[in-house]
Design brief:
- This is Exported protein.
- The protein has helices at about 1-25, 50-55, 135, 150; strands at about 25-35, 40-50, 70-80, 90-95, 100-105, 125-130, 145.
- The chain is an alpha+beta fold.
- A 7-stranded mixed beta sheet has the order 5-4-6-3-2-1-7.
Length: about 150
């Protein structure tokens, strides 16, 4: 009886989490990651700006095609940690300062992990992209993300 009740609660929580996941919508934008060597890599990204969007992120997604991602805009530089709760796919994460300079990278994050990821210094944004993209493109700290959200920080 207790097991059946617990299973039903888990199912109901899953359904309500799925309903919440479907109710958050994101705007779209385009950005470039410019390497220190001068290479430009374009991405079509969804924008996470509101508290609901920032909380939802890429949770419950089953895939993230190459050349796409999600850009988290925190509005002002702050200390942030990202985790992979309810995230079903591995990701690479680029953490940027107020000018768009990449100050920290996380690669091949583990789906579902609650381990906090991020730098000890404040960031204005985080770019989440498909796992393996950082390695494939040779991205490094010091590279720059070019997007209008970073223009206000210069």
């Amino acid at each position: 009886m207790i097991r059946a009740l617990a299973a039903m609660i888990i199912v109901l929580l899953g359904v309500s989490a799925g309903a919440v996941a479907g109710s958050v919508t994101f705007g779209a934008s385009r950005l470039d990651v410019v390497t220190e060597g001068g290479a430009h890599h374009a991405f079509n990204v969804e924008m996470a700006v509101t508290s609901e969007q920032l909380s939802q992120g890429l949770m419950f997604r089953r895939d993230l095609p190459a050349g796409t991602g999600m850009l988290f805009d925190f509005g002002s530089p702050r200390q942030v940690s990202m985790w992979m709760k309810n995230t079903l796919i591995p990701l690479d994460m680029l953490f940027m300062d107020r000018t768009g300079r990449v100050i920290h990278l996380e690669q091949y994050t583990v789906p579902g992990s609650l381990e906090p990821r991020g730098p000890s210094e404040p960031v204005l944004g985080v770019l989440e992209i498909p796992a393996g993209t950082v390695r494939r493109l040779g991205l490094k700290t010091g590279d720059r993300v070019v997007h209008p959200m970073f223009e206000r920080g210069r």
